[in-house]
Amino acid sequence: MVVLTGETLTLDDIRKICLEGERIVLKPESMRKVEQSREAVLKIVSDKKTVYGINTGFGKFSDVVIGEDDVNELQLNLIRSHACGVGDPFPEQVSRAMVLLRLNALLKGFSGIRPILAELLAELLNQHIHPVIPQQGSLGASGDLAPLSHLALVLIGEGKVFYSGNVCKASEAFHHTGLSPLILEAKEGLALINGTQAMTAMGVISYLEAEQLALQSEMIASLTMEGLEGIMDAFHPAIHEARGFPQQSAVAERMRNTLAGSKLVTRQGEKRMQDAYSLRCIPQVHGASWQALDYVKEKLEIETNAATDNPLIFDGGQTVISGGNFHGQPIALAMDFMKIAMAEFASISERRIERLVNPQLNDLPPFLSAQPGLQSGAMIMQYCAASLVSENKTLAHPASVDSIPSSANQEDHVSMGTIAARHCFSIIQNVRRVLAIECICALQAVQYRGIERMATATRVFYDEAREIVPSITQDRVFSEDIENMTEWLKKNKAGWTALNEGREFERWKQNA
């Protein structure tokens, strides 16, 4: 059970709630803040003050005053008209994260919603009712208006949801669970859709996958080091301390620990003086990507506990300020940074794949084939990896450098942060497949070298990975192997790492 406060949500909490299905509970003190901000909205309405978003139109219509009798209809019209998302839906875990992050922001007590609305969002999480939210249509400023409007539709009993493994109408899911839809009142519609929760939710889920994938890349690279009889001197701590980047030193340390005791790796001058960069510079390249991931994590942790709607209510309603916290620029830049960082894991991995399969670059059977010439072996796996790497180069183009004015030029600079987050997620899926290909090739290479000579940790990994993809004894449909390995890497969190007898992912991860 995770207690939501509006202030203390961590990425680990999000992992537990969104990826492991943990239930949530709302902190009473936070709910009191919600109640107090609601009282401020009611006073504004009763005093007939004109305040943006409560009794005015939106965007370019901000100067249009709305009568007291029409404020509820204003909110309903807002949600329906803004639900313009198109394309495939966000993954269900991202939708769950969106609900969680929107709820957490509202619990800060700056938004003026009724407590019952926060309670309904909490019920969606605990009943595992997740809005079906189209991915395309957000500019990443004024909030993620289109995606969050599809989220808000569910609260009024409209739209579709993921429920019990199926997609159904929100009204049907409510009927099955005994929930009742709400009639939105003053400011509530705007409070639901002004925010960065679509890009941030996609960003957090992407980061959680990226972090695990970055660690997996080191285990797979270690396997490649053994398959190519790589030189361990390049991982000597003195080299990395001399440069001073802690992430680089940490990668080198984990690689040394993973390869401890291996009789397949070599020393400088034993077989050759230097390895190619794709082996020798693993700590430098992977470490730089870890630096970017650390930056991204910091920004995501701030944004998950941020008030990003507009206007915000302070001092018990004495101060209502219309600002721009909904602008997604901080997350847009972070997502573009993570895109580049993750693409590099695949880029250097593909070069290691080439060294594993190219007979001009190693002394292994050409393309790791059981019968070179008659059988092509891993030849086309490298083609596939190269294609994915090339696709990533296109996806890695920064989305945040673009802006198109909207709302009759009232909203004249936007972040495109949701596009950046979506492209980042796609890159991560491609990276995992490239690493899966490297893993398959490295497994075959160490088998030729002699698995009895492997390090303890890599041998544990080898044995478990061989349960997923068997040895290549003849050509077969390797697409199935790549997808099986990809799925294993995505789902598997324990049992494959093992720097000690416990074999637990988290124990190894603690060294990150």
Automatic annotation (TrEMBL):
Its main location: cytoplasm. It catalyses: L-histidine = trans-urocanate + NH4(+). Pathway: Amino-acid degradation; L-histidine degradation into L-glutamate; N-formimidoyl-L-glutamate from L-histidine: step 1/3. It holds the Pfam family Lyase_aromatic. Contains an active site 4-methylidene-imidazol-5-one (MIO), which is formed autocatalytically by cyclization and dehydration of residues Ala-Ser-Gly. The modification 2,3-didehydroalanine (Ser) is found at residue 142. It comes from the Bacteria. There is a cross-link at residues 141-143 (5-imidazolinone (Ala-Gly)). InterPro entries: Aromatic_Lyase (IPR001106), Fumarase/histidase_N (IPR024083), HutH (IPR005921), L-Aspartase-like (IPR008948), Phe/His_NH3-lyase_AS (IPR022313). The keyword Lyase applies. It is found in: Cytoplasm. It is an enzyme of class 4 (lyase). Its EC number is 4.3.1.3. Gene3D superfamilies: Fumarase/aspartase (Central domain) (1.20.200.10), Fumarase/aspartase (N-terminal domain) (1.10.275.10). Keywords: Cytoplasm, Histidine metabolism, Lyase. The keyword Metal-binding does not apply. GO terms for molecular function: histidine ammonia-lyase activity. CDD domains: PAL-HAL. Belongs to the PAL/histidase family. HAMAP family: His_ammonia_lyase. This is Histidine ammonia-lyase. It comes from Metabacillus sediminis. The gene is hutH.
